[in-house]
Automatic annotation (TrEMBL):
Cleaved signal peptide residues: none
Lineage: superkingdom: Bacteria
Positions bound to S-adenosyl-L-methionine: G61, L66, I112, E113, R126
BP terms from Gene Ontology: methylation
UniProt protein name: Ribosomal RNA small subunit methyltransferase G
Keywords, comma-separated and alphabetical: Cytoplasm, Methyltransferase, rRNA processing, S-adenosyl-L-methionine, Transferase
Source organism (scientific name): Paracoccus aurantius
Gene this chain is encoded by: rsmG
Lineage: Bacteria, Pseudomonadati, Pseudomonadota, Alphaproteobacteria, Rhodobacterales
Length: 193
């Protein structure tokens, strides 16, 4: 059986996560056994959903690289920037890029609020902040006409209601690959109300 380049790279990435997680908390240790099912598969779903879109991508608060590195592996022709304030997590991200041979990733070891606006066509985030705050981060770095892809847990409907008090946007909620009650929120026309 031939293993695809993508699968091979995802396996390498998962192996590095398992190795480094002992030293730095990339994901909760209790979820490490289910790394592929619990963490990587939803990022792969996002990669498939966004495949037809064009333009640079910024992943905010990348941590151990979810979903940013999975996207970079799935879409090697797209430029992807990962913004992460934690120095040790950035060392891990750089190490993965080197070991896996990812040439399409830039790692910005800075705070999202301090990075000069990046004007990206696509922005993603997972487990970073409640939606109202997250939209202020997205607003800083999204190009006009751009699209946000925000991975949200079971409380996503309440977060959307809360965010609508201060923001207007178009929303398509895609069902998560791992939990039917969680969602990948695809948002366009994001404006401060
Ligand atoms: C809970 S982790 C989630 C990481 C990853 N997205 C995931 O789903 O596994 C949130 C990450 O965002 C980073 N972070 C939080 N606030 C940030 C900020 N203002 N600027 C840059 N990174 C930030 C933290 O250091 C942490 O690595």
């Amino acid at each position: 059986m031939t293993v695809s380049r993508e699968t091979e790279r995802l396996n390498q990435y998962a192996g590095l996560m398992r190795k480094w997680n002992k030293a730095i908390n990339l994901v909760a240790p209790s979820t490490l056994d289910a790394l592929e099912e619990r963490h990587i598969s939803d990022s792969r779903k996002l990669a498939e959903l966004s495949k037809a879109t064009v333009g640079d991508w910024v992943d905010l608060g990348s941590g151990g690289g979810l979903p940013g590195l999975v996207l970079a592996i799935n879409q090697p022709d797209r430029n992807i920037s990962l913004v992460e304030s934690d120095k040790r997590k950035c060392s891990f991200l750089r190490n993965v890029c080197r070991e896996v041979g990812l040439m399409n990733v830039a790692i910005l070891n800075e705070r999202i609020e301090m990075v000069e606006p990046l004007s990206a066509q696509n922005i993603s985030a997972r487990a970073l902040a409640p939606l109202p705050l997250l939209l202020s981060y997205v607003d800083r770095h999204l190009a006009s006409g751009g699209r946000a892809w925000l991975m949200k847990g079971r409380n996503w409907r309440n977060e959307v209601d809360e965010a609508r008090k201060d923001w207007s946007f178009n929303l398509t909620a895609h069902r998560s690959a791992t939990d039917p009650d969680s969602a990948i929120l695809e948002m366009t026309d994001i404006r401060h109300a």
